[in-house]
Amino acid sequence: MAHKGKDKSQSEHPDEEPLIRRINADEIPPEVMPLGSGNYSTVYTGIFEGKSIAVKRCKNNNHFDAEYRFFQQVGRHRNIIELIAYCRTENVFILEKGQCSLMEKMKELTWKLTRRALKHIAKALIHIHAKGFVYMDLKPENAVLVLNEKRKKGKKREQEEEDGGQKMDTKLVDFGATTRKGSFANFRTKNYSDPKQRVACSTKDDVYSFGVVLLQLLKKCDENGVIDVIHEAKTNQTFVIDGDLKTSMDENVNGSSSRRQQQQNQDVKRSSSALLE
Ligand SMILES: Nc1ncnc2c1ncn2[C@@H]1O[C@H](COP(=O)(O)OP(=O)(O)O)[C@@H](O)[C@H]1O
Ligand SMILES: [Mg+2]
């Protein structure tokens, strides 16, 4: 029996495929503004049923099929972008819209927001791994910041102030490289993948990339700087964090935050170099 307001992707039977809405080519919203592009697709904003959304046009069937399978089998999670509808004949997805990618926003993030973004990415990966998949393409371009309109008012005022009044969640996008655990990995992202990883993919692939993203967010460097950052973390006893992030990190570690938060901050500082050992 269908319940009012029930999440459509949640089947009564856990093994059943979630219901994903199929649309015809003439229902695809026209392009309003470009949001981003990658090797396999272009993404733009549009309006779908009165709501601002993102339209992703995949350049080939394989990428579309892999991403579709992911949404079908992995299901919803609050740190995974929501699939609203799809059009197979046009290789198009209608997705929940992010404001921008983590890459674009990286330089402006304070330590608190950096930590929050990393936590959200980790939660998404845990969910993907629990469903038997490996994400295989973790990098700041594949995470977007989404305005969270539901976050409880007054609950975390301090955080809201830091967001500049905006409540942002980090969500993963781009599931074209997602592979079943133990399957042949026909794709590994340069600089973000462990050179020692073997052909079959495992959750270790994502853990390594997570380490690289963590270092990158701490250093606020672009993709070209990633190699140097990995080198520094592997060879130096101390990993140097400069600039505004260092100031906001020190304030957070030494300031008035709770003991639990202080412990978390120390843990991230330590693990940033330990992760890649
Ligand atoms: N739902 C979304 N909301 C906002 N921006 C998005 C969204 N999906 C993708 N993007 C942007 O478009 C870029 C390309 O999309 P992506 O899914 O990564 O395709 P590709 O497989 O070609 O890399 C991303 O790096 C991101 O900047
Ligand atoms: Mg991408």
From TrEMBL:
Pfam families: Pkinase. ATP binds at K56. Residues 29-277 form the Protein kinase domain. GO terms for molecular function: ATP binding; protein kinase activity. It comes from the Eukaryota. Signal peptide: none annotated. Keywords: ATP-binding, Kinase, Nucleotide-binding, Transferase. Residues 250-277 are annotated as: Disordered. Residues 256-266 have a biased composition (Low complexity). This is Protein kinase domain.
